[in-house]
Amino acid sequence: MNKMRRAKTITPKKSESKSRAKTGEALEKVYEQLKQILEGHAPPFKLSNGGVRGKFSVQLVVPKPVAIPGAYGGKPVELQMAAAILQKGYVGLYLMCICMNEEVKRKISPALLKLLQGKTCFHLKSLDEGLKKDIEAALALGTQAYRERGWLQP
Q1: Is residue 6, in this structure, part of any structural domain at all?
Q2: Which of 96, 95, 92 has its CA nearest to residue 125?
């Protein structure tokens, strides 16, 4: 006779639950600080909240839709420059300007580049004054690159 065993349910210890709660609170604080940094760049960009369903997110987009030759069928689109998304274990800072411009990426600080995962996403778990300055500098580089391409008015 085959008897099926029930899988034991593992419940987290109280200390683990508290640790997760503290981590979540810390990430929310990082997200709020990052959101304030992005808000400082609107204008010239337009600030858009809630671009990702079910998550806290904020985006900087160009004020007028842009037609990029060879992309999106030539149709004008709202082009993002940067975004912040509160993820499960980190806050994602997405800098789209580095995907399209290798020169901008080379000018980003080594401390910020260490956090780059993939093409445009920086995984942030904490935010100190040095990192805030590095992010501000990267946003300034991206803003200049968008102006040079004519996507943002001077």
Answers
A1: no
A2: 92
User: Do residues 95 and 122 touch, judged by C-beta distance below 8 A?
Assistant: yes
- C-alpha to C-alpha distance for 14 and 8, rounded to whole angstroms: 18
- Distance of CA 97 to CAs 12, 53, 87, Å? 41, 23, 21
* pLDDT recorded at residue 5: 55
| Residue given tokens 């008015």 in the structure block | 153
Q: Which residues of 84-106 are buried (b: 16+ CB within 10 A; e: fewer)?
A: bbbbeebbbbbbbbbeebeebbe
Minimum mean pLDDT range among 4-18, 58-72, 108-122? 4-18
In the chain, the number of structural domains is 1
Flag whether 119 is in a domain.
yes
Rounded CA-CA distance 126/89 in Å is 11
